[in-house]
Specification:
The structure is a homodimer of 248-residue chains.
Chain A (H helix, E strand, L loop, with lengths): L28 H10 E6 L4 E3 L7 E7 L2 E6 L5 E7 L4 E2 L10 E4 L3 E7 H10 L1 H27 L2 H20 L7 E4 L4 H8 L3 H13 L4 E3 L3 E4 L2 H7 L11
Antiparallel strand pairs in A: 1-8, 2-7, 3-6, 3-8, 4-5, 4-7, 9-11, 10-11
Chain B binds a DNA duplex (30 and 30 nucleotides) through helix 6.
Chain lengths: 248, 248
DNA sequence: CGCAGAATTGATACATCTCAAGCTGGGTGG
DNA sequence: CCACCCAGCTTGAGATGTATCAATTCTGCG
């Protein structure tokens, strides 16, 4: 279970990989310096739970690298993923004392953390941070609403296609693999995590992935590496307006 | 279909019913005066679509009275409600040109509108507004995530119980009917709207409402008026931690 | 009164879940 | 180096919850 400890990678904010996408995106260099003084890095291993729902949160922060999930669990064990945290995404809610969700590392992760109190104080006097956080929160709200349509109204096949399309799109924007028409990427999630994302069982996920493969919508190399030969076809399968499918 | 035109009710902000819950909640009196100058009221009738998805939005605003829904629709007609707008809720996204969802009046509605451009300008120089909007957006994001658990993992019966619990709670906080232990309120939604909220068909909604009634979890007076004799029982049926059920 | 929209109820079909049995591939220890 | 092991995944067969299609029955209102 234990893996080699992920190395802690301290940065200057200046050459931080998420510098222009995270909460600090709009900060001027003097503001960045202030942030620099209250920040610290922390790394977690794949599988580790960073935060338990109900825990008191004494920090907030940004995902620098790696992937984590936000999940909610019912008493009887049913779980639903409610957020997928990629590099630059923000964790924690300013003004709230305790965590509302479990945060679990899906891969090894590096976080850029701020102690909550100083961060909140700085936010109060730094509109650039609050503005960016508002923008990010609005984006997340949009994503959550998109997701609600997926959960509430789509079939299992459409759900899988939707998820693959979302991941493909994010991958394209992150890695700038603009070789349109042939997308290749790794699924960062296990079948079980995909099931928790989509409100399905892992068996159904497996079956529908196989079906999409059989029908030529996707190609698989091993269990995780996916090729999408025709992105519009994938969007059709997802039940999405295929016009909205601009890659960038 | 046409009803008597709802009367337009202009207010001084001072005695506005949503004064301390809407985006303007934190504004000082001078800020309020500025808002006063760019605001205008608009009313809509029950059933009317205030905004079509894709429309260019030249205003944003707050619901003053009445109820509206935010819905997404797929090409084949499947629709999912993604937001329920009650008095004080904010409509529109600063910084975005076109609407992402349909907004439909469920009852007659009065909106307090601001032309988008002046509002954005004012927001940029009025932290009180941006702060409040961030807070409201974070609350909506939490609500959306709660809702995702409902959509993804709950049974039809649990979904109905969850929806009734949510409405009961909101009703309790709005009308301060603090007579704990006996909640009475009107369902503001048709069975079809409930179905769109919960990702069900209206037939299933009807069946489950009947079942909850038969089992004594709720009592009905006509189709709409609901009595909840035991709120904790309702929360159990919703699959919720019955501890979290504090009414306020 | 009688109509139209809303809601209920019934019978059946079907998608997804559930339970159960294998498969696969990468890592480990003998 | 091989055999084994185990988590992750696939596949199958049957159970079940919800959708679908189709009548009725309410209810408010002109």
């Amino acid at each position: 279970m234990l893996k080699e400890k992920a190395s802690i990678i301290p940065h200057e904010c200046g050459d931080c990989p998420i510098r222009h996408r995270a909460v600090c995106a709009r900060c001027e260099s003097d503001e960045l310096e202030q942030l620099d003084q209250i920040k610290y890095y922390r790394s977690y291993e794949s599988g580790q739970t960073l935060i338990w729902s109900g825990d008191t949160m004494d920090f907030v922060g940004s995902v620098v690298s790696g992937i984590a999930t936000l999940t909610q669990t019912m008493e009887d064990g049913r779980t639903q993923m409610v957020g997928l945290l990629l590099p630059s995404d923000f964790v924690g809610r300013p003004g709230r004392a305790s965590a509302a969700y479990d945060v679990v590392a899906v891969t090894d992760i590096v976080m850029c953390c701020f102690r909550k109190k100083p961060f909140e104080e700085m936010m109060a006097r730094t509109p650039h941070i609050a503005q960016r956080l508002l923008e990010m929160t609005l984006d997340e709200l949009d994503a959550a609403r998109e997701w609600m349509l997926v959960l509430g109204r789509k079939t299992a096949r459409e759900k899988i296609a939707s998820l693959i399309a979302i991941i493909a799109r994010r991958d394209a924007t992150l890695s700038k693999n603009g070789t349109r028409g042939l997308l290749v990427f790794d699924l960062p999630l296990t079948r079980e995590a995909m099931a928790d994302y989509l409100g399905l069982t892992l068996e159904t996920v497996s079956r529908q992935v196989s079906a999409l493969k059989k029908d030529g919508v996707i190609e698989l190399e091993g269990k995780r590496r996916v090729t999408v030969p025709d992105f519009n076809r994938l969007l059709e399968e997802a039940g999405d307006d295929s016009d909205g499918g601009m890659l960038i």
